[in-house]
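Design job #97: recover the sequence.
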């Protein structure tokens, strides 16, 4: 059964951004528009990004797109491109950026999109519907390249065994084909707490959509766009994403690199670009009960200082 879309950590994201009437907020991952709806209700103008054409088409039904001037502007683009997209819209600075990283509930629940193994569908996984699909990758890539993707993005310890099984079973056409191959390779026991195909599906999806590169690019873009006092809030769903956000904010909030008392003092780095970096915020038991998909979510937030955005070579994230 399709689960209705429930924005994860909605109250906490709104509190982190604290949108005020007249503020300009970027919803970098529009999806079904849950965060956007809350920002609009607080009186903000929202520029919403999504590379998924279905999400943008649904967003066009929001009444704020028809206001003059519109309080909701939709961009069918990757959120890493937000600096150029907003420049074209005449916006140089924003007051807040929200990111909800990863696959959306709507994408997971549509068997035809090929993101999940809960229902048989084409082996696709493309958020934009364009470019290389999961089937294209798995049916053409070298065994060692598949193993590398599974290990790097799915943290699959038996990546070589799974990759060998995938190559032996080619061609793969459906989500069921891939799930059955992985389960057979790893030994699936019905009723086990976690399906062994989960890690492979995550890894292939991240690779096909270049999700971690997109996250890094989006964080750099947010640093450039946010004005002094502007707020950033990022919700992640697994350790690979959270590690990137945590490292980015740690480095962006550091005035100079850490040094040892046994070494000469290092040159001061650029002034901190962010301050008031939050600790990890996770959903309450009550939210998890309402929305089991929130279980792995982590929110991190920070406030932009008045320092210039760091140059690319200064951003290690």
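Job complete. Output follows.
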């Amino acid at each position: 059964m399709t689960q209705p879309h429930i924005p994860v950590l909605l109250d906490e994201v709104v509190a982190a951004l604290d949108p005020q009437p007249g503020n300009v907020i970027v919803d970098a991952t529009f999806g079904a528009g849950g965060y956007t709806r809350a920002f609009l209700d607080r009186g903000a103008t929202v520029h919403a990004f999504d590379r998924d054409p279905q999400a943008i088409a649904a967003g066009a039904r929001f009444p704020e797109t028809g206001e003059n001037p519109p309080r909701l502007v939709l961009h069918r683009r990757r959120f890493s491109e937000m600096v150029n997209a907003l420049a074209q819209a005449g916006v140089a600075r924003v007051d807040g950026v929200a990111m909800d990283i990863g696959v959306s509930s709507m994408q997971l629940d549509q068997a035809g999109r090929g993101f999940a193994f809960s229902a048989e569908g084409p082996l696709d996984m493309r958020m934009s519907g364009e470019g290389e699909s999961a089937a294209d990758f798995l049916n053409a890539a070298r065994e060692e390249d598949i193993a590398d993707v599974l290990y790097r993005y799915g943290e699959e310890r038996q990546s070589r065994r799974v990759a060998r099984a995938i190559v032996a079973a080619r061609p793969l056409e459906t989500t069921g084909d891939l799930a059955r191959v992985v389960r057979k390779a790893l030994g699936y026991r019905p009723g086990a707490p976690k399906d062994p195909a989960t890690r492979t599906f995550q890894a292939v999806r991240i690779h096909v959509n270049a999700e971690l590169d997109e996250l890094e690019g989006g964080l750099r873009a947010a640093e450039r766009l946010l004005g002094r006092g502007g707020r950033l809030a990022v919700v992640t769903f697994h350790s690979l994403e959270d590690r990137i956000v945590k490292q980015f904010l740690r480095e962006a909030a550091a005035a100079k690199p850490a040094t040892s008392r046994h070494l000469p003092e290092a040159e001061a780095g650029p002034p901190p670009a962010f301050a008031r970096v939050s600790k990890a915020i996770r959903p309450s038991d009550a939210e998890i009960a309402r929305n089991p998909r929130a279980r792995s979510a982590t929110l991190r937030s920070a406030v932009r200082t008045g320092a210039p955005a760091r140059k690319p070579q200064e951003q290690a994230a």
